[in-house]
Design brief:
293 residues; mainly alpha; GPCR_Rhodpsn; two-stranded antiparallel sheet; GPCR_opsins
Length: 293
């Protein structure tokens, strides 16, 4: 499906904006996270991993989309298509999985705290590094079938980007798409929502035991802010990627004909916009005052 010349120019301008502003935001976020006071926070490794995933997506897949937008169609060979699809899939999976890690860490932190004590300060450890390595290994493994030929990697978004074939021809291809959607999106999002509810439950328990002392009330306010900010972060990730997940599922069950060129581009572009807001996850879940980790 092809866009009009104006549509391709508009897409090229949008991708150029994502590359330019996205790289700027990742750089700013990286500088903030590497400050001395942030290096000792247990969420920092996961936030750095989100920056890495964003950068991997920006530099690994956006430039080919930009060139193809100017060319009015895919400007590279099949090997490049497979590589770009692999890079984009790994980055997206790692990004969402890192948000789940952040939510679980916040839950464990708040659930273990005594409201009469200061929030503990726990520096990053080797376990977190192992988890991050595991996230990337899993992301790579789950994206291997289209690269190795077990399933297909095809053009999408008006022939300017590559992704697994969302319109499968065989039951095996359909099974792969469903497994990918469930494990890379629905399970992480569902688990994040579950742990968010557990965070609220732990907060309610703290408030039930609250003592009208200024320091304790301040502690409760920090807990409440963390809970609110966690909800915002989860909602942002969920909403941004939901249109693309719905598009994939509709296409997988034979509904690709329902989408014209523009409607096939929009969900992918909305998902890619996540690189613009998720650097601010740092500001949402990493309080500037006394560290809660």
């Amino acid at each position: 499906m092809q866009l009009t010349p104006y549509g391709y120019n508009l897409l090229a301008g949008f991708i150029f904006f994502l590359i330019l502003f996205g790289c700027f935001l990742q750089g700013i976020t990286l500088l903030i996270l590497l400050k001395k006071e942030n290096q000792q926070k247990s969420l920092t490794p996961y936030l750095l991993n989100i920056v890495a995933a964003n950068t991997f997506m920006i530099l690994g897949s956006f430039p080919t989309t930009l060139v193809s937008s100017f060319a009015r169609g895919w400007a590279f060979n099949d090997a490049v298509c497979k590589f770009i699809g692999f890079v984009g899939g790994c980055a997206a999976t790692s990004m969402i999985a890192s948000m789940l890690c952040i939510t679980i860490t916040i839950h464990r932190t708040i659930a273990k705290q005594n409201v009469t004590n200061h929030i503990l300060h726990q520096p990053p450890n080797k376990t977190q590094l192992k988890i991050i390595i595991g996230v990337w290994m899993y992301s790579a493994v789950i994206m291997l079938p289209p690269v190795t030929g077990l399933t297909e990697m095809k053009l999408e978004a008006a022939d300017t980007n590559c992704a697994p074939n969302w319109s499968p021809d065989t039951p095996g291809d359909l099974a792969y798409i469903l497994i990918l959607c469930v494990t890379a999106y629905f399970i992480p999002v569902g688990a994040s929502l579950f742990y968010y509810l557990q965070i609220r439950k732990a907060l309610s328990a703290h408030m039930a035991l609250a003592i009208p002392v200024a320091s304790i009330q301040a502690q409760l306010r920090r807990f409440q802010n963390i809970t609110y900010m966690t909800a915002v972060a989860i909602a942002a990730f969920t909403i941004t990627w939901l249109p693309y997940a719905v598009y994939v599922l509709i296409a997988a069950f034979g509904g690709s004909h329902l989408f014209d060129a523009v409607m096939s581009v929009v969900p992918a572009m909305v998902a890619k916009m996540s690189i613009l807001y998720n650097p601010f996850v740092y500001a949402l879940v990493n309080p500037r005052r006394k560290p809660y980790q």
